[in-house]
Design goal:
Length: about 325
């Protein structure tokens, strides 16, 4: 029997890229899934997967404490994955107040409700952006958190608030710090991989906001979902509760190398438009995954080339029907 069979799971941000695939995987494993979210947009992977009719869907805001309490009691929630957030760096810089309300207030309101309803396991999504600009690479979980732009700072707060609830109130919570997650179903073209793939498939020169040299760590969506589930399944262990875990490939890839890999897979001949206007971005960032390997036995299964191949295949099949 699946660990998740008949588990009653609340996913905040189920309508997002990662949240939609996590929802599908939990349904496939016979969990009962509930979400709280703002009104759905028509163009989303959540809608493409037709998930709304398969779960308990509650329209609302995660800063609404009374509504969250009602959901937890009505659906007898035993597990929560907190993914809801303003996750786009550029939007966060333009809308810092709404970003802080969603990412910081939304976290403490939710965790307070989960604490008061004795939920058994909680996973909070932080980000590799909490590390900011570090002298030592790869980033490891014991480093100071130096995220200083609005998005990074909000995730530092999310991370520390989750640790606070674990250490002060013994809430069984653990934190994910994912690398840049990519794969089929990501319709946010402000993110690098979908923007490059869609441009290439439309025979348009991709726009690279940086100078092409920044290095990042990339995690395929199936590996990300496996990371979330593996972490939740280990929340009975004292060495997991209250801890943050890096999930990534452990290997840096430059923006230009990423572009060249996508071009090679497409078989096309395009040159990127490098505008070099990106500001407040870390030059090099990639993750040590030693802690996840040693404590959780987790490793990514999909290398970057194979992940990009699967991602491009999805866009080739879906692009003509998408309004992007």
């Amino acid at each position: 029997m699946s660990f998740w069979q008949d588990k009653k799971v609340l996913i905040t941000g189920a309508n997002g890229f990662i949240g939609s695939w996590l929802t599908k995987e939990l349904l496939d494993r016979s969990a009962q899934v509930t979400t709280i979210t703002q009104r759905l947009k028509g163009n989303s992977n959540f809608n493409l997967l037709k998930l709304e009719e398969k779960i308990n869907f509650v329209e609302g805001n995660i800063t609404d404490y009374d509504l969250i309490i009602k959901i937890l009691k009505e659906f007898n929630i035993d597990t929560c994955f907190h993914l809801a957030a303003q996750s786009t760096v550029q939007i966060a810089e333009k809308s810092i107040i709404s970003t802080f309300e969603s990412n910081i207030q939304g976290t403490w309101v939710l965790l307070e409700a989960l604490k008061n309803c004795n939920v058994k396991r909680v996973i909070v999504a932080s980000s590799d952006k909490v590390y900011g600009n570090q002298k030592e690479l790869p980033n490891h979980e014991n480093q100071r958190l130096l995220g200083r732009n609005p998005y990074g700072a909000s995730k530092v707060c999310t991370d520390i608030i989750a640790q606070t609830y674990a250490h002060t109130y013994k809430l069984p919570v653990a934190i994910t710090r994912n690398a840049n997650t990519y794969g089929p179903g990501d319709l946010n073209l402000s993110r690098l991989i979908p923007s490059i793939i869609v441009s290439v498939l439309k025979n348009e020169p991709p726009i690279i906001r940086s100078d092409g040299t920044p290095e990042r760590d990339y995690l395929y969506i199936e590996d990300a979902i496996n990371a979330y589930l593996t972490l939740a399944e280990n929340l009975h262990r004292t060495e997991v509760i209250g801890e943050s875990f890096n999930f990534g490939s452990g290997k840096p890839t430059s923006v230009l190398d990423l572009f060249n890999m996508i071009i090679k897979l497409s078989g096309k001949d395009l040159t990127p438009r490098i505008i070099g206007e990106a500001k407040n971005e870390v030059d090099k960032q990639y993750l040590s995954i030693t802690k996840a390997e040693q404590i959780l036995g987790w490793r990514p299964k999909t290398n970057l080339e194979e992940g990009l191949k699967q991602t491009m295949k999805w866009y080739q099949e879906k692009l003509s029907n998408l309004d992007i």
